[in-house]
Structures are given as C-alpha cells and as structure tokens.
Hints:
This protein is mainly alpha-helical.
Amino acid sequence: MMSMPELVPKSVRMSGLNADFWATNGENLLFALIAIAAFLAVIAALLWGTEILSRLFSDRRRGAIQLAMLVGPVLILLAIGLIWPAAQTVYLSFTHMVRIPDPATGINMEQTTFAGLENYAFAFSDPTELRTVINTVVWMFLTPVLSTLIGLAYAVFIDRAKGERTLKSLVFLPVAVSLVGASIVWGFIMYDFNQTGSQTGIMNALIALLGGNPVSFLTVDPWNTLFLILILVWTQTGFAMVVLSAAIKGVPVELNEASALDGANAWQRFWQITVPTIRGTLVVVLTTITIATLKVFDVVRTLTQGRNNTNVVAYDMYDQFFVRDNRPLGAALAVIMFLFVVPIVVYNVQSLRKVRETH
C-alpha cells in the first residue's frame, strides 16, 4: 500500500521552538524577564520605602513624603521620555545640517549650525510646504465638524428608531477598523479607478452606470484631499455618535417636558435644551477628533504618499526626517504640529471650566 506523500518537509515541521529558536531569541526573552522582574522590584522598593519614611515623620509631612516618593519617579521618567526629547526636537528645528568632507579621510561629516527661523520660514514660504500646512488646517476643520455633526445626527435619530443596538453597532463598527484597513477599503473598493476596462470601484461603477465618465478620485486636486478626509470621518463618526448618545440620554426629561408645555417644537427643544446641556461633551468630542486628525498619517501614507498635493504635516514630518534625511525641517514640522495642538487644548480646558461654572 502506497503511503501519502509528505506535504510538509520535516525540516519545516521541526523549525518551531527548537535549538535555533532559543539560540536566536533566548537572550531577548531572558532580558524581557529580567526587565519585568526589575520593574516589579522597583515598585516594591518604592512602596516599602514610602511606608518606612512615612513612619519617621509627623502626619503633616507624611502626605508630602508619600506624594514625592510615588510621583517623583513618574516625573523623572516623564522628563527622560518626553520633555528631554521634546527639547531636543525644538533645538534641532533651529539648526541646519551641513556636510563637510573630512580632510584626512574625505568622508562627508555632518555638522550642525544654528539657522534661526530658517526652517520655519521655509515651511511657510515654500509652495509645497505651505500647501502641506494648508491641507492640515483643512483636515483640522472639516474632519471634526463633519464627524461630530453626522455623529450627533445619528445619536438623535437612532435613539428613536427600532433596533437601536444593531444600528449603533453598525455605525460604530468602522471605529474598530485600523486607518490602514479603512484606507484600503476606500481606496480599492470605493475609489478604485481604471483608465481602461470595467470599473471595479463602487463610486466609479455608479458613475459609469449613470452614463458618466470615471473619475480618478485620488489625483484630482483639490478634491482628492476631501476624499481622503471622508475616510477619517467614516472612522470617527461612530465614536462621536456613542459619546453624544450617552450625553443626550443624560439630559433631564423634565426640561424637555416643560419646554414642550411652553409650546416649543422638537427642533427648538433640541437647540435650546439638548445642545446647551451637552456642550461639554461636544467640546470633548471635537477636541479628541481634532487631535486624532493632526496625527493622521496612515491614510496619506497608504493611498497617495503625499502626491498630487495631498500631503499633511504628520506625513511630511516623517518623510523629511526619515526618508529625505532633512532632520531640521522634520523637527520644525513636528514643532508646528505641536503648536497646532496647544490652542485646541487651551480652548478645551476653558470650555470645560465654563461648563462647570454654569452647573
């Protein structure tokens, strides 16, 4: 009786957790275990040291000592991992890299020279870089507004519809999709363009069905930026809907009933009762989506790589720093992106403070 041919070679079947695997990754796994043990030891030492020191001082100083012992390491790690790199980035943005050949070897050596505001001036004067900044501002304005308005509309109408849970699940589903996955879905299913042959993209298929000419959605400037924005709006609308729906359910029923008795219709009750009551939530949703928009990188990287005037600051920062090796300009773009965030955070804090004072 003939035996079945061996579908998988023995060498492949045995290439799992064998000696070669442990020889290659054993040190990494050991280092990971040591790092975890060291972390736990440091936490235990901090807790034990805090308890011992708190017993040596009076009640007044005990709280301050405990706070310093517990918060101090966090502040140190924050300074090492965030503040120091941020300071280095700011310094780098004011410099210029010059390659000078070494007299002895002839190899080009990089030297850093102070350039002042040269990188920032270039970012706001060069036509290509200026278009990148303008595109980012357009993303910052349209994405939060569209996502919040559509999410608010969904929250209002779906709350009154049958099958609320199912409808909300369907709207929220894109939130769980990565931006790369969403870009692939929209780029190759919705926006696909064939110059010759049958149209496979849904939008172009509909245009061809109606007798129109297919459109290359991702190359038509400036509309291509809007088509990219719609992808992020699609992924953020579900988040806005869920948060705003919860806020709307928290509006006191008595306010709406009293307003209805005074003769206000549904539209007036919505703008005079619901919207002012959920103002704090609206600010949080707008701020969260705006910050997420500033960090948008995946959509542009996946579909256009910044071509056809679709670049944004987040992708251009990566491109200048890591691809083109123009680190000072990349650092300047990083600082510009940070400066975009600051007014948004300040406005968020002020708005929430006003809401607390009102309540």
